[in-house]
Amino acid sequence: MNPQSVEPEAIERPVPDPPGGDHDQPYTWGRPPATYMTYRQVVRLTIFRSKLEHVRMQRAGLASPT
Length: 66
What we know:
There is one protein chain. This protein has 1 helix and no strands. The chain starts with 38 loop residues before the first helix and ends in a 6-residue tail after the last helix. The protein is mainly alpha-helical.
């Protein structure tokens, strides 16, 4: 195939992102979680973090036996 015979319309161009595909807000340092998370998500995150801290303390030998 001769490169001069290729029509510009026949060349595939990348399809841009569909409109409305990105609903995320840019992250801003220092914003409280309640401004970008629901109440339930904040509670679940708090519980998850406390469990992680408990596991870290156990691994370090700092947790008191229960």
